[in-house]
Amino acid sequence: MSSATATTVNAAPVERVPFDRALLLVIPATLFMLLLFIYPFIYGLVLSFEPPKGDALENYRKFFTTDNLWPTIWTTLKLALPATIINVGVALPIAYKMRVKSRWQRWITTLLVVPITLGTVLIAEGMLTYFGPRGWLAQFLQLLHVYDGPIRLTHNYWGVLISLVISGFPFAFLLILSYVTGIDPVLARAASTLGADPKAQFRHIYLPLLAPGLAMCFCLAFVQAFSVFPSAVLLGAPAGPTRVISIAAYEAAFEQYDYSLASAIAMIMGVVQLVIVAFVLSLRNWFYKGPVTGGKG
Amino acid sequence: MARAADAAVAASAVPAQMQLPWGERVWRGLLWGVMTLFVVNILLMIAAVATNSFARRWLGTWLPQGWTATWYFDAWKEFQLGSVLWVTVEVVFAVVFLALLIGVPAAYTLARRNFPGKRALMLLFLLPLMVPPITYGIPLATVLYQTGLGGTMAGVILANLIPAAPFVILVMTPFIEQIDPNLESAARVFGASTARMFGHVLVPLLAPGILAASLLVLVRTIALFELTFLTAGPDSQTLVVALYYAVFAAGVRAPQSVDAMAMIYMLVTLVWLLIALRFVNPTQLVSRVKEHPQPA
Predict the structure, then answer these.
(1) Which residue among A53, A129, B275, B287 is the one 20 to 30 A from B216 at the CA level?
(2) What is the spatial distance between Cα A228 and Cα A221, in angstroms, rounded to a whole number?
């Protein structure tokens, strides 16, 4: 930018500029991304085909034939898909309800959003204390005699699922809320003039307009859930039912120091996730095509 | 319980609404129930951590047998929180500053100009937010360790910048689009250079947006675990990674002192979140995500 200052500070304002200097402004960010995002990615991809021994596909063969590696895909999907569906499914009606401005809207929104800042590690620690076998929740349930058996909500599948909901729901809610408030309420009013009841308004006006946003939200929420790592270690059973794919990748890289295998696992992880994202985004196009978009204002 | 009363008030405050049908009322009650359950459980969870951090001994009873604040001093000494907090501050502020430095100019160009390859560039900036940190974090950590940056503060800052810079770009682009380009033309007519136009026209107008973006990046960076975890060495750990190790090795240490550390962590994020919420309406913060090109 300093060179631009030097050359144009006294120049006449309207001159024919052969090259738009504003385009230069995008270069630092682009270079940074190429150097630290794209380059490592390609490096990892190449590295994954260069195992210490064996041919190029050795890592991938190893992943799909080793008993504690390939099932991690299913383990991860079994956690990530239900968590995402719960988060998006519950956030949608609540956000839809919160679209109307009221005295409570801002307060409730804030309350629901706060858990975003807790972060996965803090949620894990909190859950170990609160949901643990002798925590308040267990004591409360036993006091009410709702369920008298031992309550196990930590160090298993459920602990990880709950933590994914706690950390993922606020995010999904926030995102959907911004999409819902972006839809012009005039459209719904027009529909009600034509005799549509609230249910029909939602079904025929809001839902189709929300579809792209919902698809996007599902993808972002899924990405978060799919890369579950700290809570799967701290709250789950990292050796068994919650041995997710990121644990496998981490172990390969930092416990066995096999960066080649770790890169291969990271690539498989990326592919699985992109397949799901592409599938959801293609569903979106199938939903509604028309002139009205969910734009703000 | 107060929430149910609120619901009743809200329902009765809506005029011109006839007696709601039965199904509608059940549905409404269900929604409020779910929301209350969620919020109450989160608050109790935080309260449990807080209680435990002040507990002398707490085993299977409603409240601990005695109260003490010594765990905070223990945690401070045991986990070297002084230096960890200092590292966190350094990392977070460096990330915010650098993300703004490269993000805002890029956002300006993306908001104002059309050029070949713009969609591809937008995709490049959107991708780090669509790929989980662990997926690119592992190849990135490998590269960083090979260049000698792994385990250093610089490595941690660079790694955290990868989601932070695109985030700034995505938040700032709509902000810049809102500003009337005529103001810039006017500045040009009066002979301002690009740098002066930035300094005297754009930055003051963008101040609220820059503030919002930097606060959001700040809160996100404090909470971002995976990338720091993969790239940090023993003396470049941030608070969240130190907390992870403390919980991970929980058997060795008193749970109360881990909880005390968790409380310190939460207070740090909460303070910044509350500051952020004063300036950013949460419903507006992601309002323009739909404007981004959808990756095909």
Answers:
(1) A129
(2) 11
Number of structural domains in chain A: 1
| Assembly ipTM | 0.79
Average pLDDT over residues B120-136: 87
A251 belongs to a structural domain: yes
Question: Could you give the angle at the alpha carbon of A291 between the alpha carbons of A289 and A295, nearest 5°?
Answer: 100
Amino acid letter for position B95: V
Least CB–CB distance from B139: residue in A20, A44, A181: A44
In the chain, the amino acid numbered B124 is L
What does the alpha-carbon distance between residue B197 and residue B108 come to, in Å, rounded to a whole number?
12
Question: Pick from A130, A169, A250: which is nearest to B45 by CB?
Answer: A130
Give the CA distances from residue A20 to residues A25, A31, B254, in Å, rounded to whole numbers and listed in that order: 10, 19, 62
pLDDT digits (tens, 9 = 90+) for B23-49: 888 888 898 899 888 989 889 988 888
Question: Which structural domain, as residue segments, surrounds residue A218?
Answer: 62-287
d(CA B150, CA A258): 16
Query: Could you tell me if residue A134 is inside a domain?
Result: yes
Best mutation target, B290, B291, B292, B294, to test chain A (most A CBs within 10 A):
B290
Length reported for chain A: 297
Nearest to A129 among B48, B106, B193 (CB): B48
pLDDT tens column, A58-75: 889 888 988 888 889 999
Of A131, A125, A156, give the one whose Cα is nearest residue B247.
A125
* pLDDT, tens digit, 9 for 90 and up, residues A108-131: 877 887 777 777 888 888 888 888
CATH classification at residue A199: 1.10.3720.10
Q: Give the pLDDT band of residue A39 (cuts 50, 70, 90).
A: very high
Q: Tell me whether residues A44 and B10 touch, CB distance under 8 A.
A: no
